[in-house]
Amino acid sequence: xxxxxxxxxxxxxxxxxxxxxxxxxxxxxxxxxxxxxxxxxxxxxxxxxxxxxxxxxxxxxxxxxxxxxxxxxxxxxxxxxxxxxxxxxxxxxxxxxxxxxxxxxxxxxxxxxxxxxxxxxxxxxxxxxxxxxxxxxxxxxxxxxxxxxxxxxxxxxxxxxxxxxxxxxxxxxxxxxxxxxxxxxxxxxxxxxxxxxxxxxxxxxxxxxxxxxxxxxxxxxxxxxxxxxxxxxxxxxxxxxxxxxxxxxxxxxxxxxxxxxxxxxxxxxxxxxxxxxxxxxxxxxxxxxxxxxxxxxxxxxxxxxxxxxxxxxxxxxxxxxxxxxxxxxxxxxxxxxxxxxxxxxxxxxxxxxxxxxxxxxxxxxxxxxxxxxxxxxxxxxxxxxxxxxxxxxxxxxxxxxxxxxxxxxxxxxxxxxxxxxxxxxxxxxxxxxxxxxxxxxxxxxxxxxxxxxxxxxxxxxxxxxxxxxxxxxxxxxxxxxxxxxxxxxxxxxxxxxxxxxxxxxxxxxxxxxxxxxxxxxxxxxxxxxxxxxxxxxxxxxxxxxxxxxxxxxxxxxxxxxxxxxxxxxxxxxxxxxxxxxxxxxxxxxxxxxxxxxxxxxxxxxxxxxxxxxxxxxxxxxxxxxxxxxxxxxxxxxxxxxxxxxxxxxxxxxxxxxxxxxxxxxxxxxxxxxxxxxxxxxxxxxxxxxxxxxxxxxxxxxxxxxxxxxxxxxxxxxxxxxxxxxxxxxxxxxxxxxxxxxxxxxxxxxxxxxxxxxxxxxxxxxxxxxxxxxxxxxxxxxxxxxxxxxxxxxxxxxxxxxxxxxxxxxxxxxxxxxxxx
Length: 820
Known about the structure:
Elements: H1 5-19, E1 36-41, H2 53-71, E2 75-77, E3 81-82, H3 87-96, H4 100-117, E4 128-129, H5 133-148, E5 152-162, E6 167-169, E7 174-175, E8 178-179, E9 187-196, H6 202-207, H7 216-226, E10 228-238, E11 244-249, E12 260-263, H8 277-288, H9 291-296, E13 304-311, E14 318-323, E15 335-338, H10 344-352, H11 364-374, E16 377-383, E17 388-389, E18 391-392, E19 402-404, H12 406-410, E20 428-430, H13 461-464, E21 465-467, E22 474-477, E23 481-482, H14 484-487, H15 491-494, E24 505-506, E25 519-520, H16 525-531, E26 536-539, H17 547-560, E27 576-578, E28 581-584, E29 587-588, H18 599-606, H19 608-617, E30 624-626, H20 629-645, H21 656-675, H22 679-696, H23 706-719, H24 724-733, E31 757-764, E32 767-775, H25 782-791, H26 793-799, E33 804-810, E34 814-819
Helix pairs in contact: 1-24, 18-19, 19-20, 20-22, 21-22, 21-23, 22-23, 23-24
């Protein structure tokens, strides 16, 4: 008999929402009340295609773990929301000819409808959307705090420019020289941009990696991206000008082998040199190339002699200064000491341009001491990490809450009465906190222009023009919006406080904010103290140096400012589990490949439980697997077996030892599997358990034994995290109290997991006709074993109308009934 999954799912989905069984008691105190468990999956964005099974795979695994923790007695908080601002959503709106604000409402409705069907224990009362003004009000608040604390600044800089997305990208959003969103080759453009000083936290970000329980591959990615190098900066004096060149090296012991210096074409010093025509042309061509092109062409080792020389700081000999596009401005100082005898790249360059090769190595510390006496060296640490470029020249995002006053800029007026004037920041003021949010205006012509000007330049005049917070005169708003990764860098802090529409006020804790009134915060201090940090953060590795790095930075900054108690620890996600990917036809799911799988059709046909079970069985959760339709058919068939098994009245008392052993061994295996996210192994153990129970249950037997009932209860409880709908229905069918998801996870006794039973094979005329699972001592009792064998319903059919002429018994192993 098959169960009606559609009827059951609709029934329980409605009751769960009505009863609010997944609402979280956010007022609990961790030390005195029930233990909390903040169970969080990475922030989803409502893609154009809606939810696909790859998303569902991630959400289901996180939910299975959350349900398991709830059944262990934890108060589990599993919120949901939408990371709906940003280029993905905007580009889709452009493609279909809709305004992103209008499309967001459609996408939100569709995405939440899909999410409501997959069976997760979402706390719907605490959902949030990044494009909700009540949310991005606090994203803007965060920007203002960054500015007030000296971590946000504006400068003209060469930045990554995606010609397809028509916006600036942070370094972390450029993968192998291409835009991480659209895979278009990224170029360079000089423009005024806002940056966050994430580099001030580089060492702490690096050191704390050792304090977190994360997948090693993600930790390696962050270590490499931060890229700490210990070395020295050496000063080289030019022979004809009162100028110096600084080079960074980790190998000062090779300095006697330096035969040339190489400058990056975009280095500011290059503009101070009087170059000949050939050199000028080389620089101009180099600046037109993307960094990716320059890296790909590195083997060619092109370059041009500037005609200038520097004095070797130890030998006093003059060595030439070259410009070459294989040197990048952001590597060290943007100038390289060429030591062709000890560096393969330098050797290739020297050979190409007929430069000398000198093989000399000296003691490193001795060289540093000599240079220190001359005042030509300093020990330094270099990082690959660069400041986070926050500005985006798009429409669909939170307006950067900054105001520019031209008159204040002319008078070189500080940007705030409480903050010393910073270079290039005169005339800039943050929006007053009580005026937040600066709402995104509805601009009809929202498409990116491609000329570097943000679409908000076309906003109504009443929005663009405002009052200067400094002098009270006319001022203009910033027209860039902030990077969508800022939206998601703090959302985990907001989730527990979403239901608090008016968050408590508190006094500022830093003298920097002196003179201000009590401040409102984006998160309730008490709730934050009790619920943060996140206990289990579950997501993919694709944002190893994006979201995860930015979130760590924001947490550290907020902690330094006193908004997050130091007692909560140095990291927002002490434990991170990285799930694998679901592929289709051997490739990652994407619309361009045409292999997106919509879960709706499978839920309609087979049910959410079958799809959840199949996704968790497809392979190890940290590896993923290949989605095939045949697999879900088999899982539906298995759930039908479970349904029918749980409808069987009972099991004979004679099978008690075997049932106990099977049950306790299964519970032990499942507990270990769930604790380690080995969901596929857990489901395999449930299947073995069902196979074992089917041997003990006899259709038509009316008496219900205690071991039989307990075994069925255990099965339903073990199944509940994976298949919540059918488990809820079956729990009610056997008389269980609502809800199965509020019951404790089964426990096992170690002594009952041991093989203290024996399997006695039953033969009739030498042919296998059955097995008896008996206690070890019971299996040695010939009289009892023979009685049980003859009473077995299955074996009886082979004894009907027959005469037993001989009984062969091997204690604890075999019974053979010879009949005529």
